[in-house]
Amino acid sequence: MVPYAVLSALLPLLALAQDGGITGPTTSPDAAGYSCDPSRCQLPNCHCASTSPPGGLDPSEVPMFVVFTADDAIQSYTLDAVNQFLAHRRNPNGCPIKMTYYTSLTYTNYTLVTDWYVAGNEIADHTMTHVGSPPADEINGNLITLNALAGIPMSAIKGFRAPYLNYTADTLKQLYESEFTYDSSSTASVPVTDPNTDAYWPYTLDNGMANNCLTIPGTCKGEPKLPGFWEVPMYAFFDRNGAAGPHLMDPWLDTANGASSVNDSATLEYMQNTFTDHYRGNRQPIGLYTHPIHVSRTYPGVTVRASTINMINAFLDWAQEQQNVWIVSTEQLLDWVQHPIPVSQLDSVASLKCTTPQVDENAQICNGIPRNEAGLLSHCAFSDFPFYTCYGCPSEHPTPANPNPPQDSESTLLASAVSTSPTILLAVKLEETDVTYLLSSPSPR
Fold first, then answer.
1. Closest alpha carbon to 142 in 233, 230, 408, 152
2. Which whole-number Å values give the CA distances from 78 to 27, 82, 373, in the listed order?
3. I need a labelling partner for 379 at 20 to 30 A (CA). Which of 28, 65, 308, 441 fits?
């Protein structure tokens, strides 16, 4: 949808998206100074940082979750990259795989955000312009623009990940004040086989943070106290060097075991070994945290080795051969943690079920189906980066200072006719409707 020349010009910027690396442990028990009374902090709204499965379940009764996420702009090439790993897969109940896209808006094609959400995937906040330690307008502006130009209900944007995983205590407080459900920017940086592991199940900040205590000032030792706000740690893989050899985001770009070049076989080995340590232990989740540009076969100027793509698929193939392994979004993981039940009862978890939307083929509606969207898409021909939207072109590019510029009134869509299932309907076309009043409240929710 975007001209080749424009994409080529963006390559240097987008290639910088590889962020989130760590070189060793980011916390320790002394630095954490963490204390939580599980008799007073109970699910579903409070949970202590713990390596044990939630709900007191025996590990044998616990699903093994593989959390699949992507960061940064949503474009056709990024969705192609994700789909080469997920589109052909199913979970144990036969349902398609869902994932979380932590979306930043610079160079994002909004109609594809709509389509990805309607397909049942989670859309989360990654700031408007991809800045670490972000101010409030970068976080809340993202909510407003995703609502105005992609039709994502604000209430559906529950999670946040900081660009470069660069957050502060103030970032966490801002997310809490803006009524986010969770953050997923911290790292689990010590192997689960280590007695001092920080690979905790997701937990609430009623008693402060328990991760990244060596790296983030003003957190840990009981701070910040944010009741009911969840932290979902990002779980590292570890090569033969153990805690000195962690691999977090895009591990396939790293060299393994101190080598001088990337070796897909060595990467597959440590990914499988780390998975096995989790699976045979307390079954803390593992994650594939991706920047799709690095595994895109369709982005101009990017060369990705077929062996790397094959290796990632081989890992997922192997993981799915194990019993009770589920590939999920962050939202799905957190739903289970809040309401933990044994694997024998997973059929009752609504967020893991298949969705079969019934849509009138003659309806004019933004739902990712070409026949329904016919005539509704607008091409917003900005010189720096054109995009498409089903909600009317803005008069100027959204910015943190102005996240919802006036939109074309002739094609504006109201994102209020949202079904309880996001895969059913996003919005219906209304005549002479202005959505700005929906977004004028100082609260992003």
1. 152
2. 33, 6, 22
3. 441
Q: SS3 for 377?
A: coil
What is the distance, to the nearest Å, from the Cα of residue 230 to the centroid of all Cα atoms in its chain? 14
Give me the residue spans of the domains in the chain: 4-352
How many CB atoms neighbour CB 360 within 10 A?
A: 9
- d(Cα 110, Cα 128) in Å, to the nearest integer? 13
Maximum separation of any 2 CA atoms in the chain, in Å: 63
Which amino acid makes up residue 413?
A: L
The per-residue pLDDT string of the chain (445 residues; one tens digit each, 9 = 90 and over) reads 444 344 444 443 343 434 678 899 999 999 999 999 999 999 999 999 999 999 999 999 999 999 999 999 999 999 999 999 999 999 999 999 999 999 999 999 999 999 999 999 999 999 999 999 999 999 999 999 999 999 999 999 999 999 999 999 999 999 999 999 999 999 999 999 999 999 999 999 999 999 999 999 999 999 999 999 999 999 999 999 999 999 999 999 999 999 999 999 999 999 999 999 999 999 999 999 999 999 999 888 888 999 999 999 999 999 999 999 999 999 999 999 999 999 999 988 999 999 766 778 888 888 878 888 888 999 999 988 999 999 999 999 999 999 999 998 544 443 333 333 333 334 433 222 233 222 222 234 6
Matching CATH number, 4-352, of 3.30.70.420, 3.40.50.720, 3.20.20.370, 3.40.50.170: 3.20.20.370
Helices 136-150, 169-177: crossing angle, 10 deg rounding: 40
Q: 3-class SS at 260?
A: coil
Spatial neighbors of 121 by CB under 8 A, at least 6 apart, are 98, 99, 100, 101, 329
Under a CB-based contact definition with an 8 Å cutoff, are residues 431 and 411 in contact? no
The separation between CA 123 and the C-alpha centre of its own chain, rounded to angstroms, equals 7
How far apart are the C-alpha atoms of 21 and 19, rounded to whole Å? 6
State whether residue 20 is helix, strand or coil.
coil
Cis? peptide before 224, omega within 30° of 0 = yes
Report the chain's terminal Cα–Cα distance, integer Å: 32
What does the alpha-carbon distance between residue 54 and residue 32 come to, in Å, rounded to a whole number? 21
Residue with tokens 């990244």: 212
CA distance to 44, 110, 371, 409, 421, per residue, from 363 (Å): 39, 21, 9, 20, 17
